[in-house]
Amino acid sequence: MSSNIHVDKEKDLAKIGNITVRLAKEYEVPAHWMGNDLASHQLRAAWLRMSDEDLPMNPRLVGKPGVGKTTLAVAVAKELKYPVYLMQGTSDTRPDDLIITPVITEGKQISYVASPLVTAMLLGGVCILDEGNRMSEKSWASLASLLDHRRYVDSVIAGVRIHAHPEFRFVTTMNDDSSVYDLPEYIQSRLNPQIFLDFADVETEARIIRYTVPYIEDNLLLILVNFLSLSHKYEETYSVRDGIQIAKYAQRLRSLDSNLTLPRALKSSVFAILGEDALKYFPTDEQLQNEQHSSARPNLRPV
Taxonomically, which superkingdom (predicted)? Predict the structure, then answer.
């Protein structure tokens, strides 16, 4: 297998040995991290190289769905000026999907397409493998040599060995309550450090929702973050991502019907987004009246 690599960024092509592969597109969705500063510090530390011979680590971000794991990874990568490539892990992800996939062109010729992971390896970017614990051991096994000191993958289909650029960085996100497969020990030992993300505090969730939904009314935001805070205390999985969707839909309902009160708009949105069970954490009319006059309010200033 060959390790000779020549990349043409303008044409999104790479020559690996005797084959040419088309590169994946960069993930260009903006991300702004407003959560736990410790988590972002830990991720930067994991990717740091202490010398030219030192290798970056391969961290895993663990937490409930919607707490911002992917947002954190994208935000830190962008802050460090790395191109970002996102790959979604699924239960039917195959080893070939992670490396190089052959496709048949209109002229019935075989063409090769590099995965986002391999593209990041070739260009020295960050690969975010989203929901990595949904993948099978067979798929993870194909990455074992990449995640240790060897830093390469082999494509059986294309017949090439691909070595990672020195600036290549890797991170995987994992939902701690929706794993499809248990990772084998030899893979877990390569995915360190573990960086845990939990629900943000009330003020941080308010800032995140305000940043994402800048048109939200203050009183609606106040009721919403208090609802989320109460649900966290009872270990529900309602996240700030859910809060953003609730805020958007409630504000749309209000804009179409000026007679619709804030509580009713928000209650309708909670029901539509999270279902009837979530309404048991929604405040009563009396509680809403008290909250309107409470001085214990989260910081709702624009960010």
Answer: Bacteria
